[in-house]
Amino acid sequence: MGSLFRSETMCLAQLFLQSGTAYECLSALGEKGLVQFRDLNQNVSSFQRKFVGEVKRCEELERILAYLVQEITRADIPLPEGDASPPAPPLKQVLEMQEQLQKLEVELREVTKNKEKLRKNLLELIEYTHMLRVTRTFVKRNVEFEPTYEEFPALENDSLLDYSSMQRLGAKLGFVSGLISQGKVEAFEKMLWRVCKGYTILTYAELDEPLEDPETGEVIKWYVFLISFWGEQIGYKVKKICDCYHCHIYPYPNTAEERREIQEGLNTRIQDLYTVLHKTEDYLRQVLCKAAESVYSRVIQVKKMKAIYHMLNMCSFDVTNKCLIAEVWCPEADLHALRCALEEGSRESGATIPSFMNIIPTKETPPTLIRTNKFTEGFQNIVDAYGVGSYREVNPALFTIVTFPFLFAVMFGDFGHGFVMFLFALLLVLNENHPRLSQSQEIMRMFFNGRYILLLMGLFSVYTGLIYNDCFSKSVNLFGSGWNVSAMYGAAHAPSERKKMVLWNDSVVRHNRVLQLDPSIPGVFRGPYPLGIDPIWNLATNRLTFLNSFKMKMSVILGIIHMTFGVILGIFNHLHFRKKFNIYLVSIPELLFMLCIFGHLIFMIVYKWLLYSAETSRVAPSILIEFINMFLFPTSETNGLYPGQEHVQRLLLVVTALSVPVLFLGKPLFLLWLHNGRSCFGVSRSGYTLVRKDSEEEVSLLGSQDIEEGNHQMEDGCREVTCEEFNFGEILMTQVIHSIEYCLGCISNTASYLRLWALSLAHAHSEKLAPSEEDDGEEETDS
Amino acid sequence: MLEGAELYFNVDHGYLEGLVRGCKAGLLTERDYVNLVQCETLEDLKIHLQTTDYGNFLANQTNPLTVSKIDTEMRKKLCSEFEYFRNHSLEPLSTFFTYMTCSYMIDNVILLMNGALQKKSVKEILVKCHPLGRFTEMEAVNIAETPSDLFNAVLIETPLAPFFQDCMSENILDELNIELLRNKLYKFEADRRAFIITLNSFGTELSKEERETLFPTCGKLHPEGLRLLAQAEDFEQMKRVAEHYGVYKPLFEAVGDGSGGKTLEDVFYEHEVQMNVLAFNRQFHYGVFYAYTKLKEQEMRNIVWIAECISQRHRTKINNYIPIL
């Protein structure tokens, strides 16, 4: 518990690393994760540090490895993930590794380049065959299908009818044909029309199968087009436009024979290319498979190596340049392990002079280290999300282990659901070593990481569910209800008693839709249900009213207790840091403020529960009204809960009002007094206090002067105060902000804790919606 | 904008404004520049840029690193940011973004036309084109021989069409005409352009009347100052014109004479940076998007300048970048 209640005690240590062994030592330290390094070269820019060259080399290796991983995943080769993480590579191996990787990269790049070239070639050939196939139909087609323009002269229309007649005319009719991607067709056609002013015919048809774009590797739809144009100038422009739209242009065969020849040639070449491509791909796969074996561990090794050099960059050199000096924060408990790791590192590198460390005293605030295990980790994470406490502060995570699941359970409050949740969490906890769980999807992993939280939440929900008597939103009658309906008929009562009571008879039962059980009739209420809420409430129409009142009050009580507990934890901090004045000037006013208002409210709630029984319930005052009246001082006298309530409330209000100025000004004024050498206010006023009122800047000036002069007198007192520069304005501002936050927080948080009730209501109600049957025998009860 | 548009601004554009302000906070600081200037090689530059918001944008570049590689990668980064803004914007902000790309598109068109004149291949020039001003029809620019051709065939469907509409002529597109065309197109960034046009026209065959037609018809100089500028014959006269305007007077005074001092262009750049930074002082307007893009461009120019100085071992002028404060 000790380590979870407060963070670890830390000390600042100086490591003297012999420059030959520094790498190995750091590697050993890193494997154990013992220390946090401080940057001793903060003023040196990143490229002027000692080990920049090595970091660069690591980055180069990382680049190659990233390339390898990219190629491997592209080839769909599974990356074997070794579970053990290998240590950083020894320096001797680094060069070898670098050479290997570089060779591999060069080889791989060459092979992939060849492959890409072949693929591109193949794609082009395939495109060409498609184009030939599709354009063959264009020329044969009838005129009606040609997308001709109206302005187009009739002569050219005819010429397209039959290609050979065209040639006989001796006209220079040119053809450009190729493929264009789907999205560009429209713009292409428009531009063609505008530039060539109609001296072209564009025919296009969609290709039935999508092809890969040789440049981007994307699979898209293509259009095959054929442009017939008139004249050389136009042809030049057409080609330009085709370039602009990245069309793939292929030569257009003039005769049918030529077309057939090309087609045949293409087919054989495609066959050849396929075989070559297959061989290249096989070879590539072999290379990649070999690389894939070691790539995962290499990535980790390089990462570790880079981290080591980053740390070395934070060290400074000593005067002789033979020794690196690092400053680290280390938990005191781990100092022995730290020494061992240093020895191990020195031994590994075979150095003659061992690296060593010594502890240096410091006044700086060490970093916060809270060790967690798999159980506390989840709770610690929740707390850390709100902020990490400073060094040796009380760690609220310890208490969160109980409060968080409990407050959840207050809202969840269902025996059945809680048990299901508990079982689910138990399943996760029992199987926590299963590898598939820790590598699962995002949402599943969230559940997995919070499995212990879920477990406790489920357990607590079982408890609150029992209290609420809710099992899948139905009540369970375990012990037999404490209410007796038959007693309402009153056969057992003496006639003299009957007159005072409203009893049931046949006509009453028949004619009233709602009947009311009266606990004041003897025999009707036989004492409370042993555990939780009486199951009979499940049948009552005023069930919600009753539960709401109960849960609301419970929420406020829990909330106030929770908040008060927080303030009390603060006292532990003040005691630990030996700032007793904080208890008197901060914590106690805070407690008074809260308890005088809300503590009284709780008192009233409990008092009312205890004081009023079924018989006297009709005269019980409303707590809400009483609470409001506490602030309003109404002239009309109400009865109140107890005699003299008014005076008590006035007293409490006065205490509350008095605690506010203490909270605001107490600490700053006390610190000021301390700062002035504990001299009495009356005495110091004769000095420079008049100046002080004028400007705060001068105060701080005077203050710092004061420290230099009067250092010796104050050393016995509070060292913390004097070692920082004293700035009254700043302290005052911080305290004022803190106080305002606290006072407003008290009120708004109390209101927020009502959410416990609201959510509990929502949970119960949403379940109720599903089985919405209504019992006829509704009874109304009164409490 | 409508009455009370500030109230509804965040509904549509609040996310993007927040984003652009965050991006602006990622611009290089003075400290970064001090560090960059100390770099010995481009590798050092890369390492330092890694510690800034640029991140490891150069990680996949094989050695050796060159200035142009850095430049293209930076442009790519800016472009992807801009595309992100644009894809997530709603009207009328998206139109505003489209307008912002127009100047880059004009530059690209002019670049391509110049390239075509010099018989360079389109692909070669395409690399140099600014990625923000890319559009599909762009590559067909060199089909056109006259501006009206250009308009009718290539540009009519692009957002540039309304700009080109006014400057149709049947002149052959030679270098001078292209330059004139560009100046006619640029009707924004009014006053600086007027000064620069005047400055550049000294010692050319451009007549004063022609010069006047090139001037934009808005801005603080319009109309009186422009008329005076059209008559100016040398830098001194131009300076005298500028002295009538409180904004430009200190700028012209900051211009050094001859050697060592700042050029007029630098002074204008500095002023622009200042104005762009000021744009961030106010909320609920689109100016921040423009300002951010311009600041980022200036930053890229600075980095390229420093990188060039480093790679050419020309360290004396390395401090002539324009800091973004």
Automatic annotation (TrEMBL), chain A:
Superkingdom of source: Eukaryota
UniProt feature coiled coil, ranges: 94-128
InterPro entries noted in UniProt: V-ATPase_116kDa_su (IPR002490), V-type_ATPase_116kDa_su_euka (IPR026028)
Cell compartment(s), UniProt: Membrane
Membrane topology annotation: Multi-pass membrane protein
Keyword match Transport: yes
One Pfam family of this chain: V_ATPase_I
One GO CC term on file: vacuolar proton-transporting V-type ATPase, V0 domain
Residues that span the membrane, as ranges: 406-430, 451-468, 554-572, 584-607, 651-674
GO MF terms held by the record: proton-transporting ATPase activity, rotational mechanism
Main location: membrane
Keywords attached to this entry: Coiled coil, Hydrogen ion transport, Ion transport, Membrane, Transmembrane, Transmembrane helix, Transport
Similarity section: Belongs to the V-ATPase 116 kDa subunit family.
The protein's role, per its UniProt record: Essential component of the vacuolar proton pump (V-ATPase), a multimeric enzyme that catalyzes the translocation of protons across the membranes. Required for assembly and activity of the V-ATPase.
Designated name of the protein: V-type proton ATPase subunit a
Organism: Equus caballus
Lineage: Eukaryota, Metazoa, Chordata, Craniata, Vertebrata
Automatic annotation (TrEMBL), chain B:
GO molecular function: proton-transporting ATPase activity, rotational mechanism
Matching InterPro entries: ATPase_csu/dsu_sf (IPR036079), ATPase_V0-cplx_csu/dsu (IPR002843), ATPase_V0-cplx_dsu (IPR016727), V-type_ATPase_csu/dsu_dom_3 (IPR044911)
Gene3D superfamilies documented for this protein: ATP synthase (C/AC39) subunit, domain 3 (1.10.132.50)
Organism: Equus caballus
Function summary: Subunit of the V0 complex of vacuolar(H+)-ATPase (V-ATPase), a multisubunit enzyme composed of a peripheral complex (V1) that hydrolyzes ATP and a membrane integral complex (V0) that translocates protons. V-ATPase is responsible for acidifying and maintaining the pH of intracellular compartments and in some cell types, is targeted to the plasma membrane, where it is responsible for acidifying the extracellular environment.
Subunit structure: V-ATPase is a heteromultimeric enzyme made up of two complexes: the ATP-hydrolytic V1 complex and the proton translocation V0 complex.
Name the record gives this protein: V-type proton ATPase subunit
Superkingdom of the organism of origin: Eukaryota
Record key words, sorted: Hydrogen ion transport, Ion transport, Transport
Gene Ontology CC terms, in alphabetical order: proton-transporting V-type ATPase, V0 domain
Similarity comment text for this entry: Belongs to the V-ATPase V0D/AC39 subunit family.
